Amino acid sequence: MVTTILVAKKPENSKSKKQDIGRELISMDLDGGGGGGSAASTDHQPMPVNHGRSNALQQFTQQTLPACKPVLTPAWVIGTFFMMGAVFIPVGLISLHASQSVNEIMDRYDIECVPDGFKSNRVAYIKNASISKSCNRYLKVDKHMKAPIYIYYQLDNFYQNHRRYVKSRSEDQLLHGLGYNKTSTCEPQASENGLPIVPCGLVAWSLFNDTYSFSRGTKKLDVERKNIAWKSDRDHKYGKHVYPFNFQNGSFIGGGKLDTTIPLSNQEDLIVWMRTAAFPSFRKLYGRIEEDLEEDDLIVVHLMNNYNTYSFGGTKMLVLSTSSWLGGKNSFLGVAYIFVGSSSLLIALIFLLLHVKNPRPYGDMMYLSGNRKDISS
């Protein structure tokens, strides 16, 4: 006779049960999957484990990787600000000196080149093709200007950064020519008389077309017009077999015309103009004079005042400028370095005075946030 004894099992505590399950899961994770993984290993080859990568991943997730934790003591902070001032101020002075060494001659001619009878109606003057636009200007050289001397034209109040203006062009057409027909972004200068325009768009249509020539006394100064555009633009953005087509042939004429026998990659005036400016006042390179200009030289500028800036209240200016190792004349970089360096020295001095007046011992636990109430009491 078999006697069955029933033993009542004490119900498990739910909290302890969850803890046991958590320990089992952690154990399975550390062992690579627990018992299921060992059973599966009898049928398949064990996968190689990259312990270095696993350790690095575990250290990253547990935030136990070694890290640099500098202690920003008053000495370090004050010393850092003093060092910034000692470095930035000399760099700013050197940059400012390089900018001041650049010699510039600037001449605004858009008002002076308007005949007296049209001073009150400049728009009528610029739109009347029967009136000569020729004009002579005289520039005196105040300081010796070493070659190369860069010739810029400067326009003010001309918003080349306007969204609709910037988008009115076709990069693919500039590279492939008539083989690319999707020029809807060029409206309203995409086609004329049912034929496509190359180059299309408002940017090309408004091409600057004032011209300049220079002479010193009776001797003409040669102006180098090659290599004024970026080489990357000439080689990769404008086609070597793309020629202007149907350009400025409508009734609504914009700026300059283009030579239909020269490919776009060689028309550097257009390439320079098509790189739109970010601000309403900008300069663009026209050419270079490869001769030195001596002090007190009188330069005669023969120009054609063709470009219409009068309709929108813009201005035109001719600029002759040398360059330095830092580029053209621009004092912003030097002034910015001097300002940052001076501010750093001032902050360092203020911190130093505060530290001397109220020194704070290192490692004082009374300054922790939890103990501030005790201090105030």
Automatic annotation (TrEMBL):
Keywords per UniProt: Membrane, Transmembrane, Transmembrane helix
Residue spans crossing the bilayer: 75-96, 332-356
Primary residence: membrane
Subcellular location: Membrane
Pfam families: CDC50
GO CC terms: endoplasmic reticulum; Golgi apparatus; plasma membrane
Domain of life: Eukaryota
Family membership: Belongs to the CDC50/LEM3 family.
PANTHER family, sorted: ALA-INTERACTING SUBUNIT 2-RELATED, CELL CYCLE CONTROL PROTEIN 50
Protein name per the record: ALA-interacting subunit
Taxonomic lineage: Eukaryota, Viridiplantae, Streptophyta, Embryophyta, Tracheophyta
